[in-house]
Write a structure and sequence with these properties.
Largest sheet: none
Number of helices: 1
Structural class: mainly alpha
Length: 27
Amino acid sequence: DGVLINRSYLKKFGITVGELTLFMQKQ
């Protein structure tokens, strides 16, 4: 169960980082 939660957290974090990178590139 811990691994599953960790994976979903990393997925959300990865998406957030991706959006941030896109935002920075647009600037």
